[in-house]
Each structure stands twice: as structure tokens, then as C-alpha cells.
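During the second year of the project, the team shifted from modelling isolated chains to modelling whole assemblies. The rationale, set out in the original proposal, was that interfaces cannot be judged from single-chain predictions alone. As a representative example for this report, we include one of the complexes processed in the last quarter. Its constituent sequences, exactly as entered into the pipeline, are reproduced here:
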Amino acid sequence: MTIDLKTIKHISKLSRISVDDEKAKKLEGDLNSIFEFIEKLNELKTKDIEPLTSIAETTLKFRSDEVKSKNIKNQILKNSPEKNEDFFVVPKVVE
Amino acid sequence: MSDITSQTLSEIIKNIKEKKISSQEVTKAFVDRSEKSKLLNAFITEDFSTALEKSKIFDDKPNFDLKLPGVPMAIKDLFCTNGIKTTAGSKILNNFIPTYESTVSQNIWNEGAILLGKLNCDEFAMGSSNETSFFGNVQNPINQNLVPGGSSGGSSSALAGNLTPVTIGTDTGGSIRQPASFTGTVGLKPTYGSCSRYGIVAFASSLDQAGPMSKDVRDCSLLLEVISTYDRKDSTSIDFKRNNYSSELTNNIKGKKIGIPNEYRIDGMPKEIEELWSKGIEYVKDCGAEIIDISLPHTNYALATYYIVAPAEASSNLARYDGVKYGFRSIGKNLIDMYEKTRSEGFGDEVKRRIMIGTYVLSSGYYDAYYLKAQKVRKLIKNDFDEAYKKVDAILTPSTPSSAFKIGEKTNDPVSMYLNDIFTVPVNLAGLPAISIPGGLDAKGYPLGLQIIGKAFDEQNILNIAFAMEEKINFKNKITDWWIK
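Output from the structure prediction step:
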């Protein structure tokens, strides 16, 4: 299987990473060599194998749902690229 | 007394407790040496003046009952530190100041350690040479223009270069053991679920583990004892009875059965690695252990499995970096344009490559062919180990297929870079503990590591085997301080 430029553009859209044509060409080469390497798995028959979804076979523990406010609103907002009073600012979404 | 910075953690603790040196003297020694070692580029963030202040506070009211009394320490910049910039080696987080502390680092501070600074690493821990860091290459103290390994490359460099007595790294596919191997130091990846992942910048959640890096096995056992705790804040943290790893450390490994997996004799493996492995086998025999040939038949599929599972999980974990609430933001025409530009400019090439691989293998129509397939092969790899551990107590392999390579040597070929992790990746897929210890030097005088893989939760056993082997190997690193003018 090969990954073409159209697929690269599609993956770029899905992953919300803009890719220019030059970068897309480079990625096409890189991803194809990586997938060529990955295709090796097809040598194995795995029809009846259970997938391993979690390595730590534990049952999740419950905790009570308590509000623990540390009053760190300002520190959190300080990390935002743009804020207005107590809000995170983003470009206009609805025209 | 030998120079403070070349002492082991155990020696420093002993000297502090016996009041032969103060925390301030130790901290100043490491700060002074770090100031002279900028060329290594091991630090992303230095916190030297605060460290000196804290060491004075410790000395004014010392508590010698703590396990790390007044010991200064630098840690990988993947652990969130409350109020101190945490970048994960990425531009997208280059101004991020966490409002909380990772459990593993908190455990260290609770035992009296003092933060020296945050150490360089591959961007989001994705890399095997520390060359993907936004903050530049790190030099290996062993020789100029040699990579220190990765992703915990700043950690291994700072440790081998005597800028920190011990350190903590993280290991998703070999990121503690491979840099330890490249710098002649000791690194342990604990069993999945031993050390809390809370507050560690996530890469691949089913594989990530924090672990100790040190100059010898005793120090490694002591640091593991401090960082390995059950934590309710991490839903995959496992509540099991942890050993007192340092006090239970013994070199008596008589009668232990050590497995040698035939599949690790890969094509084109350098003769020096073969010889190192044979020497390692002789050492464990000398210690009274029994050697047993074993088979791990799916070894050859581990890397391909890893390069589906890890990017898939990464693509999902890194979806949070969108330029809205924290981190770097690029200006866009609209919200979507802002996301796309932020992520395009904020992430480096290797991270983008992996996000895109992950997005692809999880996308509609490909999930079964790639991700599900990889999870099934992962099961086969785990079954191999389960089968082997019916016959043996631990497994001995080389840590890496070569010694450290030159900076720039492998950056243009992602697959050849990935092959570095061929001996370390199966361990993460199976969730097992493994330790890398220096086994000797190659013809160039570069260190080579040996890896001991244990059963799940059997860290004490691999530490003991490593401890016994360390005595026999009697390894000496050849470091000339070439970077200090």
C-alpha cells in the first residue's frame, strides 16, 4: 500500500496540522518508508487473537465526586495566549 | 574526599548525614559545574538560585531522616513542576507554567531533594538522540558531537557529566535505557503502573513510565524506592506491595535462571555487541546463576507494533495542543485556521510525523488493518514473555544494537533511527521492568549497555542481578571533561 499526496492532505486536515506542498512531498516519502516497515505485521495470522487493550489489568477504583477548588484561576489564565478578564479569547467562530 | 560532583548519590547522602558536607556545599558544587558545562546543553530551564536558597533552608533545619536529605537534583523536562516552566522539549509549550506537580517529582521533594533545573529531551519524548528538541542538541560527555541517546538525553548527559547526582527520565520505548547505555550510566524502566503518570506530559499512555537514572545500581534502587508509589490520581497506577529496594538489595543471585533469547541475535549486529552479550552471560554464570536458552518468537514484530500503537496514542494525547488555553498560538483567519497554523508551527517535524501516522492508523477504514492488528500482535509479544517466564526468572540482552552515534548521522532516515529501540521496545509493549547497566566499552571507547528484563513487579530481582553483575564488570567511564575550558 502506498500513501499518496491526496491522502497526506487528508491526514493533515484530520490532524489539524497545515502542511504546504513541499512538506507534503517530504512526508509522503517518510510515511511510505515507515508504512513499508509496518506492513511486516501482515505476515502474522491474528484472526483468533484477543487484542491487548490494557497492560495493567486492574479494575478502576471509584472515588467520591468532590469539588476541590485550589483557587488558581489566575495562574491558569496566565498561561493563555490571549485572555479577556476571566475568559480565554479565540478568533471569531460565528460570523 | 573526592570531588563532590563525582560522588554517587549514596556517598552524598552519607556525607550529608555525617555532616561532612552541607546541602549548600553539594548544591553549590553542582551549580558551579553546570555553569561551566553550558556546551552540553543539558538544561532547558535552570533553577540554580532557588536551589541554593532551598539548600540553605535545609541546612538551617536539617532533617536527616529523609531519604534524599538536601540532595540537589535535575529532572527531565517532561515532569510538570508547579510554578516552573515545563516544555517537554517543544515550542508549543515553551511558555507553559504548570499549576500542579507531577506525583513522581513530588515524591522526590517530599524526601528532601532540591530541584536544580529541568533537563533537555526529545520533543514530547519522541526521539532516540535528543535531536528533535526545540531547544537544540545535547552533547554526550563521552565525546564531542556524539548523541547522548534519547529521549532522556539531557538526563543522561547531565548524569554522566556530573551535573546531577541522579535523575529521573521517562521511558516509552527505551527512552531511559538507551540513553543510559550511550553514556555509561544505569537506567531502569519500572513495571507499567509502578510509578504514577500523573503530571507527566503524555506521549503514549499505555507505554509511558517514569524511572530512575543513576551512576550505579545502589543509587538506582534508592531512587526507585522513592518514586514508586501507588497514586489515586493515575487510574493505571497499581496498588501492589513495593519492596524496600535499596535495603533489600543483594548480590546473591545463586540459582537464578537467566534466559537468553535467540531472537535478539539480529542480522548485522556488530561483533562488539555479540561479544559484550557473551561477556555478560559469563558474568552471571560467575555469580552462580543458571543460563537457559529461550525463545521470544515475535520479537521481530515489536518495532512495527510499537510504531502503530505509540503514534496512535500520541495523536490522541497531543490533540489538546490547540493554542487556546496555554502554550504557543499562531494567528489564523478563523478558529480552524488558527488550530492548523498553531500545530504546524508549534510542533517539530518528528512530532508532526508521528501525529500524522497515528491519525492515519486510527482513521475510518484503517483502524482494523493497523491499530487493531497491532494490539493483537502486542498480545502475542506479551504471551512470548509470559511463556518464557515459566522457565526463567529474568532475561539478559544487549540494551542497544550499537554504541552512541554522531549527531546528525541518522536524522534523515526515520526508520534507521527507530531501529535503535529494537531491544528496548518489546519491554514497554509487555509492560515489564528492565534495567540497563554499563557492560563495557567498544573499540572507540564508547560505553555499551546490557539489559536485564524482569517479570512484572519483580524490580527487586533485576536490581539484584544488575548489582551482582556490576561488581564483576567493574565498569569505568572514560570522561575527560572536554567541554569545560
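The two ends of chain A are 42 Å apart (CA to CA). Helices of chain A lie at 5-14, 21-38, 73-78.
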